[in-house]
C-alpha cells in the first residue's frame, strides 16, 4: 500500500518504484538510501536540503509549490519579504526624521535668539555696586537670609524718549516713585511699601555725578537719587529702615507704558471722571481699561485728582500695581510663554538692575518664586507719614508705627493691610474698649495693621 502523504518507500519494494505523490519531483530529490551506486548517494546527500519530501514539506502539505529551479518554499518565514514596499516606506521615515530634526533645531535657535535678545535688553548698574562696596561696613546685616528686599525706583528723568513728559533740564535724574518690596522667605506673601518723595530724611554723604563727595544732610527723600543716583538712594533707605537692600531695579516711563500695553491694558475703577490736560487723561467714571499712555497719566497725575497730595497719588499707584499683578496672574501671563515674552521684552528694555538681577534667568527665577503668592497676600501700603511740622508741603514719619513696620519687614514677620476707613473704625473701637491688662498680657501679639490694599481688592466695590 502506497503512502499518499509522501512517507519513505518500503524497503521490500524495488528501488526503482517511486511512491505515489512524489512522481513530480526531480530524480535527485528522492530518498536514495537504498541506491546501490555510491555516486547517487553522494549526490543525494548534497541535494538533501532541497528534498521536497523532507519533514517541512510533509507539514506544508500538498498546497506548497516548488520554485522552477527545484528549491521549495516550505514555511511562511521562507517566503521572500516584500522589498519594494519596504523601500517605499523607508524614504518617508527618513524624511520625517529629518523634518523633525530641522524643526527642533529651528525652535532651539529661535528660543536662543529670543533669550539673548531679552538678556541683552537689561542694563547692569555697575556704578551702584562699586559705590555700595565702598560703604559696605555701614550697611545693615541681613536678618533672614531667604527673604528678599528689592528697591523699585521709578525714574523721572526728562531726557531722551521721556522728554515729552516734561522739561528737559539736561537729563537730571529724579526718583518719581520708590517702593520697598519685601518678599517673605516662604514666598507666601509680598509687601510693597511706598516711600513718599517728599519725606524728610537723613541723606548720607554720597558720591555725586561729577565724582565729588556730598555732605550729609536732612532733606527731601527724592533728592538722594538726584544727588547720587541709585547707590545714594539705597543707602538712604537702609539708614531710614535698618533693612538690607538685596537688589534694586530702575524703570523709566516708557518701560511702564509698554508693560501695560503688553498685557492688553489694565482695568481700574474711577469714582469720579478725570479731565487732566497735564496728564493727557480724560476718562469717565466707572470701570475703565487703561492702555499704557493712559495708565502713565493716571499714576502720575497729582494736582487735578483728589486732594492733590502726593500721598493720594501713591495710593493710586498702589491700586494700579495691584490691578496689574491681578491681571497678570488671572490671565495666566506668568505661565504662558507666548504672553509672557512681550511683558518681559517691555520690562527689560527700560530696566536697569544690579548684577544679581541683570539676566533673564535671574528675573525668571524671581518671577517664578512670586507666581504662587495669593493675590490677597500681595499687599500695598505707604509708610506711616504725616505732614512735616515745619513745612506742611513735606512729610515726616509717624512713630512708633513706622519703626514697627520696618522691624516686621526686617525680621520677616507678617503685616496686614485694610482700607483706610476700615482701619479708622478699628482704631476707634480699640480706643473705646476698656483696658484689660491681664487678658492683654496672655494674648499673643497681634499682627500690625496698616492702611493699604491688596491685589485681590475690587476697587469698584470699595
Order of helices and strands: HHHEHEEEEEHEHEEEEHHHEHEEEHEHHE
Sheet-strand content, in percent, reads 15-25%
What is the overall shape? globular
Q: Please describe the biggest sheet, giving its number of strands, its sense, and whether it closes into a barrel.
A: 9 strands, mixed
Category by helix and strand content = alpha/beta
Number of helices: 13
Q: Percent range for helical residues?
A: 25-40%
Beta strand count: 17
Low-confidence stretches: 1-71, 165-171
What separation lies between the terminal Cα atoms? 112 Å
Mean pLDDT over the residues: 76
The Cα radius of gyration reads 43 Å
- Which strand order do you get reading across the main beta sheet? 1-12-7-2-3-4-13-17-16
Description:
The chain has 13 helices and 17 strands. It is α/β, with parallel strands linked by helices and 462 residues long. The strands form five sheets. The chain has a nine-stranded mixed beta sheet, with helices on both faces. It has a two-stranded antiparallel sheet with strand order 5-6. A hairpin with a 2-residue loop joins strand 14 (385-388) and strand 15. The chain starts with 37 loop residues before the first helix and ends in an 8-residue tail after the last strand. Mean pLDDT is 76; it is low at 1-71 and 165-171.
Amino acid at each position: 500500500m502506497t503512502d499518499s502523504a509522501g512517507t519513505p518507500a518500503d524497503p521490500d519494494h524495488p528501488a526503482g518504484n517511486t511512491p505515489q505523490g512524489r512522481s513530480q519531483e526531480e530524480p535527485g530529490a528522492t530518498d536514495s538510501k537504498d541506491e546501490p551506486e555510491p555516486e547517487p548517494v553522494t549526490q543525494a546527500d548534497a541535494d538533501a536540503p532541497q528534498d521536497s519530501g523532507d519533514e517541512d514539506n510533509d507539514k506544508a502539505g500538498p498546497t506548497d509549490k516548488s520554485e522552477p529551479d527545484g528549491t521549495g518554499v516550505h514555511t511562511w518565514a521562507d517566503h521572500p519579504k516584500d522589498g519594494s514596499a519596504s523601500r517605499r516606506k523607508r524614504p518617508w521615515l527618513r524624511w520625517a526624521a529629518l523634518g523633525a530634526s530641522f524643526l527642533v533645531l529651528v525652535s532651539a535657535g529661535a528660543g536662543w535668539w529670543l533669550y539673548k535678545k531679552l538678556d541683552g535688553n537689561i542694563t547692569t548698574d555697575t556704578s551702584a555696586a562699586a559705590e555700595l562696596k565702598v560703604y559696605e561696613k555701614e550697611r545693615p546685616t541681613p536678618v533672614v537670609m531667604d527673604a528678599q528686599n528689592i528697591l523699585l525706583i521709578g525714574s523721572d528723568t526728562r531726557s531722551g524718549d521721556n522728554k515729552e513728559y516734561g522739561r528737559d533740564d539736561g537729563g537730571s535724574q529724579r526718583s518719581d516713585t520708590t517702593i520697598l518690596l519685601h518678599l517673605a522667605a516662604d514666598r507666601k506673601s509680598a509687601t510693597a511699601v511706598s516711600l513718599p518723595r517728599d519725606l524728610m530724611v537723613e541723606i548720607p554723604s554720597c558720591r555725586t555725578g561729577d565724582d565729588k563727595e556730598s555732605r550729609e544732610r536732612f532733606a527731601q527723600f527724592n533728592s538722594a537719587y538726584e544727588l547720587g543716583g541709585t547707590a545714594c538712594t539705597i543707602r538712604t533707605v537702609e539708614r531710614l529702615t535698618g533693612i538690607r537692600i538685596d537688589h534694586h531695579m530702575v524703570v523709566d516711563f516708557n518701560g511702564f507704558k509698554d508693560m501695560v500695553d503688553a498685557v492688553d491694558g489694565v482695568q481700574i475703577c474711577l469714582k469720579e471722571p478725570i479731565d487732566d490736560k497735564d496728564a493727557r487723561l480724560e476718562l469717565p467714571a466707572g470701570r475703565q481699561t487703561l492702555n499704557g499712555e493712559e495708565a502713565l497719566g493716571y499714576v502720575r497725575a497729582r494736582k487735578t485728582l483728589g486732594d492733590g497730595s502726593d500721598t493720594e497719588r501713591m495710593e493710586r499707584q498702589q491700586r494700579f500695581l495691584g490691578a496689574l499683578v491681578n491681571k497678570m496672574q488671572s490671565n495666566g501671563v506668568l505661565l504662558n510663554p507666548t504672553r509672557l515674552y512681550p511683558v518681559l521684552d517691555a520690562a527689560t528694555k527700560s530696566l536697569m538692575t544690579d548684577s544679581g538681577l541683570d539676566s533673564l534667568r535671574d528675573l525668571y527665577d524671581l518671577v517664578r518664586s512670586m507666581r504662587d503668592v495669593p493675590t490677597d497676600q500681595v499687599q500695598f501700603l505707604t509708610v506711616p507719614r504725616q505732614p512735616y511740622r515745619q513745612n506742611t508741603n513735606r512729610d515726616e514719619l509717624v512713630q512708633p508705627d513706622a519703626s514697627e513696620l520696618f522691624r516686621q519687614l526686617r525680621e520677616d514677620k507678617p503685616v496686614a493691610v485694610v482700607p483706610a476707613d476700615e482701619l479708622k473704625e478699628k482704631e476707634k473701637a480699640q480706643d473705646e474698649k476698656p483696658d484689660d491688662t491681664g487678658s492683654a498680657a496672655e494674648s499673643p501679639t497681634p499682627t500690625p495693621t496698616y492702611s493699604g490694599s491688596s491685589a485681590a481688592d475690587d476697587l469698584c466695590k470699595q
